[in-house]
Amino acid sequence: MVKVYLSPSTQDGNVGEGNYGTEEQRMNQVADVTQQVLERHGVKVFRNKPEWPLSQVVTDSNNKNPDIHFAIHSNAGGGRGCEVYCHKFGGQGEKLARAVYERLSPLTPTVDRGVHEGFNFYGEGKHMYELAYTNAPAALIEVGFHDNEQDEIWIVSNIEVIGKALAKGILDYFGIKFREAELGLNEALEILTSKGIISSPSYWKENAIYGKQVNGEYAGILIKRAAEVLTK
Count of alpha carbons within 13 Å of 87, Cβ hemisphere only? Predict the structure, then answer.
């Protein structure tokens, strides 16, 4: 089984523009979506805890022994767009970083910032901590700038889109084909009702399940209505 360690930001002091709230809050929302998609594809997901310092996050990741470590952040300090970091080019961390970047970058509303090394990022011998000290191949994404009004609005409005894109990139790294989630019965009935295909969703909730028998005449009417919609 593929094992992934997701590490959304623990920086609760980083407050964004407008209604952004904190980096910790928003990136955990993104990670929730990423986790759901990965688990639907049979991936085992580990997570950090918001109250942990980075040293504890790295220790926990190393103890869990995942196949990859993936950190999820939003940026600050001037600028726009997403960027992804690995510790050094030439290894599996770079492969992971580029796989995720290729999934998210086409979806952002601006020119993005590429893939970079975290090695010596803060000066000689001062590396991006999670990338340098996790045992697993690691990457860290900055999905956009939470101190830029346009990026902030885009992030808040696209939590689901961003989280799903990150999951797709991780799946690409492992060679796992992405598949859309199947519709649940309630969601399917809402769609059919909104299109005028059915007029009694409660009937189908009670009867369109295993062990129940749907009225044949009603089923025939439904088939005809569906065909009419599909052929318009």
Answer: 19
Q: 3-state DSSP call for residue 18?
A: coil
Instruction: Please say whether the beta carbons of 26 and 10 come within 8 A.
Output: no
Q: Nearest to residue 6, comparing CAs of 169, 175, 146, 177?
A: 169
Question: 3-state DSSP call for residue 178?
Answer: coil
Domains of the chain, first to last: 3-174 (3.40.630.40), 185-230 (no CATH)
- pLDDT tens column, 96-125: 999 999 999 999 999 999 999 999 999 999
Helix (H), strand (E) at residue 115:
strand 115-117
Give residue-wise pLDDT tens across range 187-201: 777 888 888 888 878
